[in-house]
Amino acid sequence: MSYRKLFWQEFSGLVEQHIEIYTVPQYGDYPDDQLTGFTPNEIRMNMKRYLNRSGRGQRGFEDELIDCFKMANYSGELWAKMKGIR
């Protein structure tokens, strides 16, 4: 197995935990959550918001790490919408 795949597996497992522990309890689950109704452009705007605040140090290092999970979650939903899956 490549190191890149190994790194991705570690990260994606943490994204899964974030979705189950934080996102779904706070915002609900498909198809009854806010994200389901977002357009691809709204998803991109949210991703950009998290990216823009990255590296500024205003929210702290741990919150920046969590923002990576949020962007990954949005990225997966954007992919699904672009494919016509959701």
What does this structure look like?
The chain has 86 residues and is mostly helical. The chain has one domain (3-83). It is built from 4 helices and no strands. It has helices at 3-27, 34-37, 40-53, 61-83.
What shape does the CA trace take?
globular
β-strand amount: under 5%
Q: State the end-to-end CA separation.
A: 31 Å
Q: How much is the radius of gyration in Å?
A: 14 Å
Label this structure with key terms:
globular; 86 residues; mainly alpha; 77% helix
Short synopsis of the structure:
This protein has 86 residues and is mainly alpha-helical. It has helices at residues 3-27, 34-37, 40-53, 61-83. It is 77% helix and 0% strand.
Write the layout of secondary structure elements.
Blueprint: H1 3-27, H2 34-37, H3 40-53, H4 61-83
Helix pairs in contact: 1-4, 3-4
